Amino acid sequence: MRGLMAFHMRRKDKEITDVGLLKRILRSAKYVTLAMSMDNQPYLVSISHGYDEDRNCIYFHCAAGGKKLTYLKSNNNVWGQALLDHGYSEGNCAHLFASVHFAGKVTFIEGLDEKRRAMECMMRRLDKNPETLMTRLDPERLSKTMVGRIDIDYMSGKKSKEVTITE
To answer: Could you give the CA distance from residue 144 to residue 46 in angstroms, rounded to a whole number?
Structure first.
């Protein structure tokens, strides 16, 4: 667990132990929220993303400058959460959800081949017609695009027993 404090899951009845299910949640979440820190100052941001199951990484793109980039270049360790929110269960005093927490390191990609792979991964996840967008991924455009990769080295998850995860 790479320096993470060892905690146990308090609610074992909600724990997700199936790695395939954890990956399905990461693939289907609309966005992930990242926690980062610089000089002992926390920062939190939600990002759209693409999850590459084969590489167990999350891709995102961002501006070539700004607070998020400054934080990540200072300290590339992140903690993240993907949440599938199924809403409040009326009359049950319960919230229906599935979530994955993860830890990883951010690397900014330089190579055009991996940038293309990352952008295609995000487009397939986010767009209803990704093939049209992918035709615009020419080398000049890709070279100007800031793409980050979060290499995940720890995952845990929880879900309400009433929630079924489908794709």
So the answer is: 22
Amino acid at 87: G
Phi/psi for 120 (5° steps) reads -65, -40
Strand partners, 60: 148
| pLDDT tens-digit readout, 72-100 | 999 999 999 998 865 555 566 655 668 89
Find out whether 73 and 37 touch, Cβ atoms under 8 Å.
no
- Tokens 């990609």 label which residue? 109
Closest residue by Cα to residue 72 from 153, 140, 146: 146
Comparing C-alpha atoms, which of 36, 51, 13, 11 is closest to residue 106? 36
- Residue 117 neighbours by CB distance under 10 Å: 19
DSSP 146: E
pTM: 0.84
Instruction: Look up tokens 């299910």; give the residue.
Output: 21
Mean pLDDT across 43-69 = 93
Q: 62: which strand partners?
A: 146
**Residues 57, 97: Cα–Cα separation, whole Å:** 22
Separation of alpha carbons 69 and 62, rounded Å: 8
Separation between Cα atoms, residue 137 and residue 140, nearest integer Å = 8
